[in-house]
């Protein structure tokens, strides 16, 4: 069995977490310590490292994971800075890899779009009989929450419609909304993971911060069976 820790939205070296009483560096240290006490094979970071001055510290903290660490970038991230630590062969940070039962596809939605070039690449990569795990910062399926109405993936319908043409089950692991959500549409199951910094209330009229907890998702893959669960820790206010 393979276990992946999916973490996202730490927002290091940004003013907003501090305004809400959040200490992102302390959160990050506690999360990595928590993961160290579980049997975890890989870490995938789902985007929004934060300010570029925090990049050296962030990547140094993940150096022990070596090739078992995979990176996505989000709308708060800087591609040129990120590839100094996590090189890319493309002009965007997208790539794919696979094992015996599952194909893993990492997409770059840092501009809030999936580019035409990336969509063409994605269509070719989707040609596989295996189950597919997609990692992306932005959710692809619509969610009834204020963040979705203001900061969605701009061409999500185009991405969704491409994925719906496939017979394979596709599991989408995403971030960006600072909340937990799971929904299914035909062959697609989308899992939004709570942020490593602070949450945003899902059922609210406007964007409203909840600073009580932070967390990550543990994904378990047993041959072609895929399960996951949320791990939440209390913020040290």
Give a short overview.
By secondary structure, this protein is α/β, with parallel strands linked by helices. Helix content is 23%, strand content 28%. The termini are far apart.
Coarse shape: globular
For the residues shown, what is the average pLDDT? 95
User: Which value, in Å, is the CA radius of gyration?
Assistant: 17 Å
Number of helices: 7
The helicity comes to 10-25%
Strand-residue fraction? 25-35%
The separation of the N and C termini measures 36 Å
Query: Which second-level CATH architecture applies?
Result: 4-Layer Sandwich
Number of domains: 1
CATH class: Alpha Beta
> Mind telling me the CATH superfamily name?
Metallo-dependent phosphatases
Q: Unreliable stretches, pLDDT < 50, 5 or more residues?
A: none
Output the structural class. Answer: alpha/beta
Number of strands: 13
Strand order of the largest sheet: 4-5-6-7-9-8
The major β-sheet equals: 6 strands, mixed
| CATH fold description | Purple Acid Phosphatase, chain A, domain 2
In sequence order, what are the helices and strands, one letter per element? EHHEHEHEEHEHHEEEEEEE
Describe the protein:
The chain has 237 residues and is an alpha/beta fold. 23% of the residues lie in helices and 28% in strands. It is built from 7 helices and 13 strands. It has a 6-stranded mixed sheet, with no helix packed on it. It has a 5-stranded mixed sheet with strand order 3-2-1-12-13, with helices on one face. Strand 12 and strand 13 (225-234) form a beta hairpin. The model has no long low-confidence stretch (mean pLDDT 95).
């Amino acid at each position: 069995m393979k276990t992946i820790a999916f973490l996202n939205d730490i927002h290091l070296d940004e003013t907003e977490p501090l305004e809400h009483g959040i200490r992102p560096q302390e959160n990050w240290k506690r999360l990595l310590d928590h993961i160290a006490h579980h049997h975890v094979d890989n870490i995938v970071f789902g985007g929004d490292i934060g300010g570029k001055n925090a990049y050296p510290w962030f990547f140094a903290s993940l150096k022990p994971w070596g090739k078992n660490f995979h990176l996505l970038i989000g709308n708060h991230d800087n591609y040129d800075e990120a590839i100094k630590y996590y090189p890319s062969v493309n002009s965007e940070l997208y790539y794919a890899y696979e094992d015996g039962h599952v194909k893993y596809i990492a997409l770059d939605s840092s501009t809030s779009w999936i580019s035409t070039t990336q969509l063409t690449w994605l269509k070719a990569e989707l040609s596989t009989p295996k189950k597919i795990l997609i990692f992306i910062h932005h959710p692809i399926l619509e969610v009834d929450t204020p963040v979705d109405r203001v900061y969605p993936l701009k061409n999500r319908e185009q991405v969704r419609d491409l994925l719906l043409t496939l017979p394979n089950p596709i599991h989408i692991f995403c971030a960006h909304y600072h909340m937990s959500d799971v929904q299914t549409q035909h062959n697609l199951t989308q899992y939004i993971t709570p942020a490593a910094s602070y949450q945003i209330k899902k059922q609210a009229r406007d964007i409203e911060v909840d600073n009580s907890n932070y967390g990550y998702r543990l994904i378990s893959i047993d041959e072609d069976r895929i399960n996951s669960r949320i791990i939440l820790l209390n913020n040290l206010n």
